[in-house]
Amino acid sequence: MSLSRGILLAIERAAVAAWPAAETADVDGWLWRYSGGGSQRANSVATLAFRGADPELAIDAVEARYRARGATPMFQICDVTAPGDLDERLQRRGYRLQEPCTCLAKAISPATTGTGTAGVEIADRPGEDWLAVYLGGISDSRRAFAPSILARVPQPRAFLLMREAGVPVATALGVVAEGAVIAECVMTRAGRRRTGAATRVMRTLEAWGTHRGATVAALQAVAANAPAQGLYAKLGYARVGGYHYRVLDT
């Protein structure tokens, strides 16, 4: 799937909006983010725009902000990062590369998604069962701070939960922005994976998104996560971009 730079930039902006940090600041157009805990996105700089005259001075400002919080400086570098040589600048300053990820997307419409999948609940807030499934599948460091991030997710949003015989087994979070529905928090309870639960939740998310004006469904997945990459390929998602983090271990 080939997308213009403008559409890819819109998807990346939508993904930033879908996972809001506790604290943010504008650093010459970059979005500095800090939330505590283990979420890399919510504790890194989104680099989709740059309006400054000197990137090195802006990097200095970012580092000072993170150090004031006792946090590690971290940047999220993607295919539409500005300026285009930021990755090389950070590498020269001693930043190491961490966790390559892919941006995956597909075109959607009411005609292709239908009305959704029966048996998947949609709510405006994460209930106890939704949280039990999602939080049960992430690391301890992320688990402590995830509920506060989820509470800040903007509208329109949908917390999707699938049950089997009354037991909650799979979740997802859909957020619509910039004409795209971003899929977050796709999780299946251990022991119920590879049973089609995630597929049903994603199909419902896509249908929900189209009825709120989305023409693209997109998500971000760790490149080395073979099961996730396989699932999304079967659902028709294709790589449209990628990103990684640059981290300064000092």
Summarize this entry quickly:
The chain is α+β, with helices and mostly antiparallel strands and 250 residues long. The protein has helices spanning 5-18, 55-68, 86-92, 110-113, 128-135, 140-143, 146-151, 197-210, 226-234, and strands at 23-27, 30-34, 45-46, 74-78, 96-107, 120-123, 157-164, 167-177, 180-188, 216-222, 238-247.
Give a topology summary.
Blueprint: H1 5-18, E1 23-27, E2 30-34, E3 45-46, H2 55-68, E4 74-78, H3 86-92, E5 96-107, H4 110-113, E6 120-123, H5 128-135, H6 140-143, H7 146-151, E7 157-164, E8 167-177, E9 180-188, H8 197-210, E10 216-222, H9 226-234, E11 238-247
Parallel strand pairs: 3-4, 9-10
Antiparallel strand pairs: 1-2, 4-11, 5-10, 5-11, 6-7, 7-8, 8-9
Q: Could you name the CATH topology of the largest domain?
A: Aminopeptidase
| Count of individual helical segments | 9
Order of neighbouring strands in the sheet with most strands = 3-4-11-5-10-9-8-7-6
- Evaluate the radius of gyration: 18 Å
The assigned structural class equals: alpha+beta
Per DSSP, what share of the residues sits in E-state strands of 2 or more residues? 25-35%
CATH architecture field of the largest domain: 3-Layer(aba) Sandwich
**Quantity of strands, as a count:** 11
Averaged pLDDT: 95
The level-1 CATH class of the largest domain: Alpha Beta
Which spans have pLDDT < 50 for at least 5 consecutive residues?
none
The amount of helix comes to 25-40%
- General form: globular
Distance between the termini: 39 Å
Major sheet attributes: 9 strands, mixed
Task: Please write the string of helix (H) and strand (E) elements.
Answer: HEEEHEHEHEHHHEEEHEHE
Query: CATH H level of the largest domain: which superfamily?
Result: Gcn5-related N-acetyltransferase (GNAT)
